[in-house]
Amino acid sequence: MEISLNKTSSVKGETVTMTLKHADIDHYEQVQVEIFDTKEPNPTSKLGFGTSPKQVADGYYEVVFNTNDLALGIYEIRHILLHTGKHKLDDKLFFNAGSDFNRTFFEVISANDKVKTSSEIKNEVINFEIENQIKFTEGIDISKTFKNSFTVFILVKRLLIGARYRFDKFEIIPLNRGLDTLDELCFTNSFLKDFTSFNLDFPYNETMALHSQSGNPVSVVYFPNIIADNPDDAKAFALTKTTFLLQAFSLTRGATGDVFDIVCIDLKSGNGTRYFFQKGYVGNLLTGNFSGENPQNLIKSIETLETDLFKRFGSLNIFVES
């Protein structure tokens, strides 16, 4: 995909014409564009629109947008989506700035502001990003005796996010894939073979892999530089920060996510330590009648939960909190 703008400095309220070039663009009826702000640790979408592109030459199309709803500042064309309309949403092409087309910036100014060249606008954004990256990797110093530097990766499952979020000296990144259920399938097939007389063995296929991974998405919380006495201290600090982050997500998204693996790497030696992080069984560790495994009590509990909405809600709350 190639894109260009008819001007990179626009007085607020003026229109901007964007030209797109792609070999297959004539196959698509609609184009959607996402415009993000810049010079922020976490750039966000400030203008999104969809329209029918107008052909101006063979392979070249134009779309026009208005800057009236944008505040003064520098913006970037971040995402472009081509699709064939609401009835064929699966027929689409998605393009990202930097990987699928050149990063393209423009500024919205007032009538009295000095117009900048496209190079000046781009350099202003790139310089901010370089300075921000330097600050991000400077390190968090929690050391008491020895100043060793560690990078920590904390892998989190069952948390779906659509963008990278950067905080003070750490960030969370969606990996756009998830954990597989192959182990569960193998266990089920083993159970059917060893404990039943049915001759069943369910196959594993690509469709199952895609469904299982989409249902169990994975993100990574990344600490580029923790200055600590040892890897255990670095891990403990990063895990505490991550726990607060996941609790914050539970308030805003209704999903907490679970840490399942932690990797701590010594930046000087390159040696790594893996901390297998798995929630243990939290129920009664005793079994049998003395532990409360009473079938009559279970039957009564099931009947109560089926008929009493208030008790069902209370039990679910206790379950979630545990």
Give the CATH superfamily of the largest domain: Macroglobulin (MG2) domain
CATH class of the largest domain: Mainly Beta
Which class do the helix and strand fractions yield? alpha+beta
Number of strand segments: 17
Cα shape = extended
What is CATH's topology name of the largest domain?
Immunoglobulin-like
Helicity, in percent?
25-40%
Poorly predicted ranges (pLDDT <50, ≥5 residues)? 316-322
Q: Mean pLDDT score, rounded?
A: 87
How much strand?
Answer: 25-35%
Number of helices: 6
Main beta-sheet annotation: 7 strands, mixed
Count of discrete structural domains: 3
Reported CATH architecture of the largest domain = Sandwich
Q: How far apart, in Å, are the first and last alpha carbons?
A: 50 Å
If you compute it from the alpha carbons, what radius of gyration comes out, rounded to the nearest whole angstrom? Answer: 27 Å
Question: Which H/E pattern describes the elements?
Answer: EEEEEEEEEEHEEEEHHEHEEHH
Protein name: DUF2141 domain-containing protein
Structure description:
- The chain has 322 residues and is α+β, with helices and mostly antiparallel strands.
- It folds into three domains: 2-131, Macroglobulin (MG2) domain (Immunoglobulin-like), CATH 2.60.40.1930; 140-179 and 216-276; 289-321, no CATH class.
- Helices cover 29% and strands 34% of the residues.
- It has helices at residues 118-136, 182-195, 206-215, 231-253, 295-307, 309-321; strands at residues 2-5, 9-11, 15-21, 30-37, 45-51, 54-57, 60-66, 73-83, 92-96, 104-109, 140-141, 148-157, 165-166, 171-178, 217-228, 258-266, 272-276.
- The strands form three sheets. Strands 11, 12, 13, 14, 15, 16 and 17 form a seven-stranded mixed β-sheet that branches.
- A hairpin with a 7-residue loop joins β4 and β5.
